Amino acid sequence: MSAFALLVIKLAASLLADRLFGEPRRWHPLVGFGNWAKTIEGQLRRPGDSHRRELALGLLAWLAAVAPWVGLALLLRSLHPQAHWAVDILLLYLALGGRSLAEHAEAIAAPLAAGNLPQARERVSWIVSRDTRALDEAGVARAATESVLENGNDAVFGALFWFLIGGGPAALLFRLANTLDAMWGYRNARYLAFGRIAARVDDLLNALPARLTALTYALLGRTRAALACWRSQAPAWDSPNAGPVMAAGAGALGVALGGAAIYHGQLEQRPPLGGGQAPDAGSIRAAVALVRRGILLWLSLAGLLAVILERAGA
């Protein structure tokens, strides 16, 4: 059996585990990693550091946060000829967040559909960084739908892509880099220099997966509208990777996303995404369904490629 076929089997096992069990409810490794990264930042940074020193410390902090765990994964994988099975399946399972994403989305969609706007506002605040206290129904649905589409890449397809490239350690590297970007990749006074490496590495690792995610959304939704939105709207978005993902996703769903949002007390006028009707609870659920169909498509295509490679090598 080819190495790629083995990866596809492991990928299927990890997806099944994520669907059955979801993320660990207690002692999630990514929570522990976040605390580890905070400790490193606290130990390295000092008030008054120069811009150049902040850049250097940001690189050192990134390496100190990520390298030990990727190195440990590689070591565990090499301890026994069959150790790669357990290590790869476990690492991809922990890197995936498909079921968790769907559960968070439904926890917003259900009260929104029932007319319980305060509860929907509270639950959407768990997954977005914008101020949700004054959001109307469309605003809650917009925030949740955008989060599902973007995290479809960050918590699902990006991990699947890097797993197929380099197994469990590569999926781990992607997920840890993505976590550090979420912690340090802000363009503000505190992280503009220190977090630059975290932001750039995440941009680099996401460059191809994000566009494959956007293509996945386009193929499984309103294809022509999705591709048009990707082409015309994504360049105006600040993030070079989130732009294609969310523009294509919004076009695929036929909903209008983007627009004004309040972050840390400041009103930001964001470019429009997609087009058509205002989002509602159904849009949130449609975004989840789009991600789920994408998972099936990726698994099917990976399996087909494995069969082709097997026959070509026979």
UniProtKB/TrEMBL annotation:
Q: Which GO terms describe its molecular function?
A: ABC-type vitamin B12 transporter activity; threonine-phosphate decarboxylase activity
Q: What's the main place this protein lives?
A: membrane
> Is this entry keyworded GTP-binding?
no
Location in the cell: Cell membrane
| Biological process according to GO | cobalamin biosynthetic process
Q: Topology relative to the membrane, per the entry? A: Multi-pass membrane protein
Pathway field of the UniProt record reads: Cofactor biosynthesis; adenosylcobalamin biosynthesis
Going by the entry's taxonomy, the superkingdom of the source organism is recorded as Bacteria
**Residue ranges crossing the lipid bilayer per the database entry:** 55-76, 155-177, 295-313
| InterPro entries in the cross-refs | Cobalamin_biosynth_CobD/CbiB (IPR004485)
Instruction: List cellular component terms (GO).
Output: plasma membrane
Q: Which Pfam families match?
A: CobD_Cbib
| Keyword annotations | Cell membrane, Cobalamin biosynthesis, Membrane, Transmembrane, Transmembrane helix
Its function, per the record, reads:
Converts cobyric acid to cobinamide by the addition of aminopropanol on the F carboxylic group.
Q: Which family does it belong to?
A: Belongs to the CobD/CbiB family.
Q: What PANTHER family does this protein's entry cite? A: COBALAMIN BIOSYNTHESIS PROTEIN CBIB (PTHR34308:SF1)
State the name under which the record lists this protein.
Cobalamin biosynthesis protein CobD
Q: Which organism is it from?
A: Azoarcus indigens
